[in-house]
Amino acid sequence: MASQAGGKPIAVYGAIASNLVIAVAKFGAAFFTGSSAMLSEAFHSLVDTGNEVLLLYGVHRSRKSPDDTHPFGYGQELYFWGLIVAVLLFAIGGGLSIYEGVVHIRQPEPITEPLWNYVVLGIALIAEGISLAIALREMLRERKPGENPFKTFQRSKDPSIFVVVAEDSAALIGILIAFAGVALSTALDAPILDGVASCLIGLTLVTVAALLVYESRGLVMGEAADPDIVRSVREIASADDAVRGVPRLLTMQLGAHRVLLNMDIQFKPDISSNALFAAIDRIKGRVRDAHPDITNIFVEVEAFPEVQGGSRPKRQS
Questions:
Q1: Taking a C-beta distance cutoff of 8 angstroms, is the pair 298, 263 a contact?
Q2: Reduced 3-state DSSP string for 48-71
Q3: Could you tell me the strand order of the sheet in which 243-255 lies?
């Protein structure tokens, strides 16, 4: 979604609309044809719809203003709900699909009127493709020159984008597997293959869910900002005429577009107190201009003997 700082979560809205319509169509096709793979796909789309609703709730909660309980805001709540989505995709989406596949393998039933499946899968393929295109467009806005899309996915700090990309990608793979399962089971008169396709869909969902759990875990635990941002901030601070060095620079992602910055700055020993505070304000202004996502800046002064009492001034904002 475009910037979640204030924009609408377009990718989430698009995913909710497409998944809800597709889930209803798939359940109908599964009912009329008895296809296990189609039923697994219906479960998948239903879980995806619920997941997008949870992400939308997380986006809403993450925009709450800071208060006494959460002085840095609620941005990380989106990471929590992103992790919940990944767990649900693993447990419900993958688990139900594998279970349904195993049941159908043990007790295979022939597919009747497979045309229903082909029509619904074709519609789902188009709808999921459109949803994925929207999500990819939002994600690739943050792509660096020469960077491959998977690296951009790994670097993304916004679950309302990378979760949708992962789910839609899994959905497209699942549709292709379901199509192959229906086609082979009817063409070869081997209904067991429909159950095998259902298990493969489940394994696909489990794999994608594991990837999302891995990506969300770091953000929930307080992941650092992008290394390029850290490098840029260090360069900005070090370039100031009053600075001798930046021995320590810590960052933490507070939300999709909110970063906490803590800098230890060594100033030149002959600088006056007024010049010191002017330099701190100057550096903070340049950092904010270069990186608007850095919303909280704390500066600690290293080695400044002329300050009264040898204290270490701290400036924050």
A1: yes
A2: HHHHHHHHHHHHHHHCCCCCCCCC
A3: 243-255, 258-267, 294-302, 314-316
User: What global pTM score does this model have?
Assistant: 0.79
The token duo for 81 is 């709900």
Look at residue 285 in the predicted model and tell me its pLDDT: 95
Whether the CB-CB separation of 267 and 233 falls below 8 Å is answered with no
Per-residue pLDDT of 82-124, as tens digits, reads 889 888 888 888 888 898 889 889 888 787 778 888 888 888 8
Tokens found for residue 91: 């447990």
Contact 41, 124 (CB under 8 A): yes
Per-residue exposure over 192-225, b if at least 16 CB sit within 10 Å of its own CB, e if not? bbbbbbbbbbbebbbebbebbbebbeebeeebeb
169 vs 284: CA distance, rounded Å: 40
- CA 225 to chain CA centroid, Å, is 15
Distance of CA 9 to the CA centre of its chain: 12
10 Å Cβ neighbour count for 306? 12
* Structure-token match 């916004």, residue found: 158
One-letter amino acid for residue 174 of the chain: G
Are β-strands 294-302 and 258-267 bridged in parallel, bridged antiparallel, or unpaired?
parallel
* Residue 248 tokens, joined: 């320590």
Half-sphere exposure of 159 (CA within 13 A, CB side): 37
3-state secondary structure of 262: strand
Inter-residue contact 101 to 217 (CB < 8 Å) = no
Structure tokens at 27: 């359940």
AA letter at 111: I
DSSP letters along 161-179, please?
Answer: HHHHHHHHHHHHHHHHHHH
